[in-house]
Amino acid sequence: METPQHAGCEDYRESLRSRRTFLKGAGVLAGGGVLATMHGTAFGQTAFAASGKAESVLVVVNLRGGADGMSLVVPYGDDGYARARPTIAVAPRQLLQTDGMFGLHPGLGALEPLWKTGRMAAVQAVGLPAPNRSHLSATEEVAEADPGSTRRAGWLNRMVGMTEPAYLFGAVQVGWAVPGNEIHGRQPALAAMDIENIRITGPAGAISQRKAALDVTWGHAPGPLGRAARDGMQAAARWRPVVQTPRRPEHGARYPKSDLGRAMAQSARLVKADVGAEVISVDHSSWDMHTDVGTLDDGEMRVMADDLARSLAAFFTDLGSLGSLVTLVTISEFGRRVAENGDAGLDHGYGNAMLVMGGGVRGGRVYGSWPGLDPWHLVDGDLAVTTDYRSVLWEVVEARFGSVSLARLFPGFRPQRLGMMRRA
Questions:
Q1: Which of 226, 238, 293, 384 matches a 20 to 30 Å C-alpha distance to 126?
Q2: Are 272 and 322 in contact (CB under 8 A)?
Q3: Per residue in 311-332, is it b (16+ CB within 10 Å) or e — as a string?
Q4: How far is CA 309 from CA 74, 129, 259, 382, 410, in A?
């Protein structure tokens, strides 16, 4: 029998398997060239800048599965933390950058230079306005960020629709060829499993002939299929600077050989190519730790935190001075329970933590109001939320993208000011 804390886990895992099955089924298309999805109006119907430098870039790393914010940003100064987690709590002496209340998980060591130099911060007790412990439902709610609306539009898609000028590749998802809810909507968005595949392929020396043939076939074809074909050809042509950007990381950056490491390496190439990408969305899965959260020397949390930290640190190292253009935010659909379960794991919870790093960040500290872990402060056994996640996102967007409207990005929402960002 499925317990409430495991409800939706199998549906969530099946959704991930379905995405992977789709990608395997699309392998022939990928081998043939373009594996991308465009949503919304045809490019030809909107005035897009062909290329150009985005003055700021927002990178959103989605920690899929419900990451435990109290393992990443540990509230060791609250006595309730150690009491609730007798086998998986991290000892204060092992934490990084402690401040009397919070410390970073040792697995985040690769990010410590960003923290020390004031380019990385955290926000604790952050999340949805009301508990939602279903993976699929909470993921959709976080992505759309428009409670009660019947529109199926992600907040990142709304955002790129408000910036000026509008670029062809304003919103790009890297690492998955199936667009996530964040970038779905009226504005065109591109999703790529591998940035190398956004191109027209063919036998050596025959690419120009293939382009000519495609143009003859689809150049004036009517209807949605014709427009889609022209969009694809236009995208492949304008994507060329990305593919031509060297694969070799710069400034001594070394990415982990993981899905996230590869996605962040590709994201760095996208920023360097300077084709106008303002939003990059990346997924990092497997945070659903009902068992074996583990200790510092073993367990899932150490592995996941290490991969996350080394991938993000390599990304900023690779970018060098271009890193000042980029602000990166991590987000997850919900946090985990305060108390560990009988399998040394953590079930679905509520309050969580977010990491913010890069350009404009007032770093080196943890933001937000800590509600405490005493039983009377918890929400059905979970960490309470004192900061709506949209406040974190809005503060970043407001500081880095001045033309975006709060009323259109997060309708009906009144953000809380945290003070974690400087204006660009």
A1: 293
A2: yes
A3: bbbbbbbbbeebbebbbbbbbb
A4: 16, 28, 13, 26, 29
Q: In 3D, which of 390, 328, 363, 370 has the Cα closest to residue 70?
A: 370
Task: Report which of 357, 351, 311 is spatially closest to residue 121, judged by C-alpha positions.
Answer: 357
Residue 124 main-chain phi, psi, to 5 deg: -105, 160
Distance between CA atoms of 281 and 418, rounded to whole angstroms? Answer: 24
Q: Which tokens belong to 117?
A: 């130099």
d(CA 12, CA 349): 16
3-state secondary structure 307-330: HHHHHHHHHHHHHHHHHHHEEEEE
Residue type at position 161:
G
- AA identity, residue 177: A
Per-residue pLDDT 10s for the chain (424 aa) are: 344 556 567 655 555 444 443 333 332 223 322 333 343 333 333 333 444 567 899 999 999 999 999 999 999 999 999 999 999 999 999 999 999 999 999 999 999 999 999 999 999 999 999 999 999 999 999 999 998 888 888 999 999 988 765 556 788 999 887 788 999 888 878 888 888 877 766 666 666 777 787 777 877 888 878 777 777 777 777 788 898 899 999 999 999 999 999 999 999 999 999 888 899 999 999 999 999 998 877 889 999 999 999 999 999 999 999 999 999 999 999 999 999 999 999 999 999 999 999 999 999 999 999 999 999 999 999 999 999 999 999 999 999 998 899 999 999 999 999 999 997 6
Two tokens, residue 209: 């002939």
Q: Which two tokens stand for residue 30?
A: 């990928």
Tell me, what DSSP letter sits at residue 77? T
CA separation for the pair 181, 157 (Å, rounded): 9
SS3 category, 159: helix
Indicate the pTM of the whole model. Answer: 0.88
